[in-house]
Amino acid sequence: MATNESRLLLLIDDEPAQSRLISALAAREGFRAIVAGTAEEGLERLKGAEGDEIAIVLLDQWVPGEDACALISELKAARPTVPVLMLTASTSPLLAIEAMRAGATDYLIKPVAPERLQQALRGATRREAPRAELQPLAEKLASALDFDAMVGTAPVFRTALAKAATAARGHGHVLVEGETGTGKDMLLRAMHAGSPRAKAPVRTVNVGSMPASTLESLLFGHERGAFAGAFDRQTGLIEQCDGGTLVVDEIDRLDLSVQKRLAEVLERGVVRPAGAAHGFRIDVRVLAASDRPLAALVAEGAFDRALHDRLAATQIVLPPLRERAGDIPALTRYFLNKIGAQPGLRQHSIADSALTLLEAYDWPGNVRQLQAVLFRAAVFCEGESLTADSFPQLLEMLGSQANREAKHQRGLGVMLYTDDGNLRALEDIEADIIRLAIGHYRGRMTEVARRLGIGRSTLYRKLGELGIDSAA
Question: Is the same domain home to 365 and 457?
Answer without folding.
Answer: no
